[in-house]
Amino acid sequence: MTRSLGGAELATTIRDDASGAAAALADLGIRPRLAVVLATDDESTAWYVRSIAAAAKRTGILCDIVDLGASATTGQIHGTLVELGHDPDVHGIILQTPLPDGTDLDALREAINPAKDIDGANPVSLGRLVARLPAFAPATARAVIALLDHHGISPHGRTAAVVGRSTVVGSPVANLLVQRNATVTVCHRHTTDLAAGTRDADILVVAVGIPGLVTAEHVADGAVVIDVGTTATTDGRLLGDVDAQAVDGRAGALTPVPGGVGPVTTALLIAHTVDAAAAQHAQHAQHAQTRSDSVLAGFRSGV
Ligand code: ADP
Fold this sequence. Notes:
This protein has about 300 residues and is of the alpha/beta class.
């Protein structure tokens, strides 16, 4: 029997905690606000953005969908990101991919204010994560680790394989697994024998975006399989990267799609936004204190 590693319960806990923290901020007159910037008419993206907005609503935080349209230019998106970065009422920013062909994604990621980079997209955030400094990790990568923890599965001393090496999912997940003392193999589009890279792994994380890519031959008996893939079909279904039927009975545990990594990811995006709002408030308060201290010091010294 393959155990199902659902994410709904954990997502609820994360949202409840974030709700409590948001209520405490509301007492100080702060309403956490998330801005999601998108420039695509891709159906998977629309599905994902709707789930973020719904999670925000349930938690009592504000969520603006800034839809620049599928023909937006790098300049337009850049301008929007800079504006949001300066807006004191916006605490979290997500730049949703895919972006229109020809846009400079690297430059745009760098335009996200790191203090508001709640999905860890700016290379500064990723660098800090790899350097093991405080930073917002990409929410999907954190969701994978949070799900393992929630279901009592420790990566410590285990072998893990990650399929996919994107900077938003595969690479940070691999890094977080190493930080949690797993021995990690990373597979990607140039891996010639995918099954050879994955079939001995105790923990297999798949983040590719190809429905059904992973079948029984890729999975060790009893392995824990985390399916990050979410490909929306035209008839409104959501497909994972793992062929759930094929690995049933072979995998020890598998995350469902939908209902596995997805809800935890959206809950973490909301929690990160509340954390960012609290951190930005604390920093303003500290600046104000420093300013008033220096004014007082000026009085005292007769300046
Ligand atoms: P995501 O946002 O889910 O990480 P991306 O499209 O950014 O998706 O990245 C897809 C990743 O999947 C890339 O790292 C790529 O190397 C990997 N990939 C694509 N096709 C295959 C394949 N056939 N086998 C293994 N990895 C693949």
